[in-house]
Amino acid sequence: MEIKSDRKVLIIDDEETLLKNIGDFLRVSGYSVFTSPNSTQGLELLRNHAPEVMLLDLHLREGLTGMQVLKAAKMLKPDLKVIILTGFGEEEEARNNCLSLGASAFLSKPTSLRSLSEAIGNLMEVK
Amino acid sequence: MLLISVYIAVAVNIFLGLFVYVKNPKKSINVSFSLMAFSIAMWNAGDILIIFSDDPSRAILWSRISYIGALLFPAFSLHFVVSITRDVIRKDWKRILSIVYGSASFLLCFIFTPFIIKEVSLRPFKEVPGSLYFLVLLFFVSCFLYLFYVLIKAFTRSSGLKKTQLSYVFLGYFIGLIAWSAYFLVLQGFNLPPVYYIIETGYTLAVAYAIIKYRLMNIKAAVSRAGIFFFVYILILGVPFGVAFLIREKMLANLWLLPLLLMAFLASAGPFIYMRLQRRFEVRLRAQEFRSHQALRRLSHNMLRFTNLSVLLRLIVHYLVKILGLRFAAVYLLESQSDKYLLSSAWYSGEKIELPQEFDVNSHLIDHLYLKKLPIVTEELSLYAPTSFTTHIKKLFSALSELRINTIIPSFLRNGLIGFVVLSDRRNKTPFSQDDLNLLMVLSNEAALAIENAQFHQKEMSALVEKSKREALADMAPGASHQFNNRLAAISSSVELLLFKLEKSNIEAQRDEGTKTLLKDAKAALEMIDDEVYKGKEITSAILKRAKAKVDFQEFNLMNLIENAYKLVMISRSRSGLDKAKEPRFKINSSSQMPNVFASEALLQDVFYNLIDNSYDAIQDKARLINEGNGQTNVSFQGEVEVVVSQEDQAIVVRVSDNGTGLTKENHRKLFTPYFTTKATSNKGSGLGLCVIRDFIEVHKGTITCESEYGKGTAFIIRLPIRKEKANGNQI
User: Fold this and answer.
1) Which of chain B's residues have a Cβ under 8 Å away from the Cβ of A24?
2) How far is the alpha carbon of A8 from chain B, nearest alpha carbon, in Å?
3) Contact indicator for B653, B624 with CB cutoff of 8 Å
4) What contacts B110, CB < 8 A, 6 or more positions away?
5) pTM to 2 decimals?
6) Chain A positions in Cβ-Cβ contact with residue B544 (cut-off 8 Å)
7) What is the pLDDT of residues B152-164, one digit of tens each?
8) What pLDDT does residue A32 have?
9) If you measure CA to CA, which chain A residue comes closest to B480?
10) CA B218/CA B222 separation, integer angstroms
11) What residues of B are in the A interface, CB distance below 8 Å?
12) Closest residue of chain A to B484, computed from CA coordinates
């Protein structure tokens, strides 16, 4: 377990069920997972644990918006890999905005856990 | 006095004779009238020459020549009356006329013999009748007795315009009768002023008016106007002259001013008295007509208030029937797409008449309306048709009379004929007066404006409704689908996590068979749930695509758009209860790699959604019809909707076809008219009308056409031009 602990993933999503499920799945898959339902706690976790990959919901109900979190996170940790999750479908404009701000992938909910884990795996290997 | 009146009589008769002849030299009515007028002129001219002759031998010659006119006149008159009543009274006119002309010729043989006029004495002028003179009188009287008999008979049998025409002729002969009675009385030595020449011109004038005038004034109005005119001028001239006559002794004693002042006063007051009296009399005489005119005016004032086209049209036809006492009235409006005037609204009082559904823009009727720009009265076509295009007019006349169309009133707007109103005859058979037609023309022009207004309003309204629907969807859909997708994500992640755990736990290793089966079932169920979740995602994504589609032009893939439209149709129809097994097949094909189109995604989404939805409706209807028709449900009918996208030159052609009910000819024709629907129930047919779809296509400078065969199916063909310049610009 200790070996895997350097594969750190941060998840920020205000959907508690989804947050818990993704977290559980990734933990079982061998990642160290930090979860947060809001931006404040999420950025705090980012600062303290420096994860390699962040899963970010684009539409957070409170605090900063997903886009603002993305900007802030990239400033805090420029080499952070970010996967955006959205419930608003494949919106061309939002996707382009996110990618230009340095997001690595853009997935629309619901997305399968397997493909999510694969995406994270790929991003880790790139490093 | 005598001389002047004779000169006037001769001149008027010759002039009218020529005038009527020139108007239409080929018509027997005109020819016989001219001959009649000339014979009167000859008769009167003889009288003038007698006055000027100094010796009796000359006078007798002129007297005899004048009698040639007097003899021919009854014959020509009868001929004229025969030709004007020929279509009402059928008889062997040839034989009767030949008898008349025969007797006239017989008497003419004796005209230069003393048998008719023995001698003439001058100063005082007196003709001494010969032994056969009584025959001349007999001929004259019998001709005219017969003439009046024919005229009265024709008058009672005719109706409408013909009746008015005959009443003028009748009036003319009545005036003539007074004139000739006076004439013969003078001849017989009675002392009467020579008014008969003047009265006589009244006769020719009345008859000529009946033949020449395009539309006859209401005879009551004509007589009342003439009577009032006569009365007023007797007053103006008579009173001062009377006063002058009474005070003639004292005229020199500075009283000459009185009649002069009276004359000046009356002459300036005359027109006002005339107008006032005329108005009074006409209101009395034509009360009914005036009431209906008032109602028509009210109608035309109120028309612009109506913005619903079908209500407006119904209102117009209904009130026309009611106010004018018609059998029916109908409106035809131009449908520019098909270049046809379509029956748009009709109202019948009593039995329904099969009016034609359409008139072609190139038909004679429309040509004629464009030519005249005035109401067409069917009866007049036969009465006054110019000879140059009689065959057309004859055909038109018989077509219209067969339909019992009496009058057609065109509606012009900026020189274009936007439509016309057809009216039947009145139930009481009285024809429309010129005043009626003038007012109807005003009404129809007012209606043209109101119709344009309503059409514009409805189009605007429907565009507005469409826009607000789009906006509501654009507002609602993203939030709703976000919520929905998040719920789905929660479900799918739970399910997938559980599935993952199940896979890891090695079910086969379970020793208990019951647990093993249970776990297998659970796994299968979870997999199914996961599948369904992703189907749910597809639904929201299709709705989102439609909601987010932009109205502004941009480049996109048309195939994706059509597929999305199909998905939306499927989503919206999932409740419609179609038997799964009988689900129509949907095929979409494109010929090769299609270029992206530069278009409005939102508008085209609406277009294809509605076309595909219509196709499914048509298939559903056909399936229902087949079931009802056979009373059994296992008839094999496989519905099929096919979309084929291909490229032709500079256009992308999309053909959306189905094998549904198809359209009847009539529905096919009306397809693109505003607010047309084949769907009887109110819950359906709320989609975009094809007229709006056509507008959307026209925004893209494209075209939409329809091919359909009733019972076989329908196909819509849309051509969208490939806009290269824009597409290239976007790529750069």
Assistant:
1) 497
2) 20
3) no
4) B116, B132
5) 0.57
6) 88-89
7) 888 888 777 777 7
8) 92
9) A88
10) 6
11) 478, 481-486, 488-494, 496-497, 500-501, 504, 530, 533-534, 537, 540-541, 544-545, 548
12) A87
Q: What are phi and psi of B385, to 5 degrees?
A: -55, 130
Cα B684 versus chain centre, distance: 34
In this complex, the residue of A59, A90, A110 whose CB is nearest that of residue B492 is A110
Give per-residue pLDDT as tens, A75-84.
999 999 999 9
**Residue listed under structure tokens 């300036």:** B268
Write the DSSP symbol of residue B252: I
Inter-chain contact B491–A91, Cβ cutoff 8 Å? no
Q: Give the residue carrying structure tokens 């009854």.
A: B74
Cβ-count burial of B533 within 10 angstroms (0-12 exposed, 13-18 middle, 19+ buried)? buried
Which of A90, A108, A113 faces B493 most closely, judged by CB atoms? A113
Task: Count Cβ atoms within 10 A of the Cβ of residue A97 and give its class: 0-12 exposed, 13-18 middle, 19 or more buried.
Answer: middle
Complete DSSP assignment for A57-119: ES--SSSS-HHHHHHHHHHH-TT-EEEEEESS---HHHHHHHHHTT--EEEESS--HHHHHHH
**Which chain B residues are closer than 8 Å to A109 by Cβ?**
485-486, 488-489, 537
Interface test with A, best of B475, B481, B486 (most A CBs within 10 A): B486
pLDDT band at A45 (very low <50, low <70, confident <90, very high): very high
Contact B486 A18 (CB under 8 A): yes
How many residue pairs from chains A and B have C-beta atoms closer than 8 A?
A: 76
User: How far is CA B415 from each of CA B304, B375, B684, B706, rounded to the nearest angstrom?
Assistant: 20, 15, 39, 30
> ipTM of the assembly?
0.87
- Of B167-171, B267-271, B280-284, B434-438, the one with minimum mean pLDDT is B280-284
Q: Is the separation of the CB atoms in B323 and B295 below 8 Å?
A: yes
- Locate B88 and state its tokens: 């009402």
Q: Percentage of residues in chain B with pLDDT exceeding 90?
A: 10
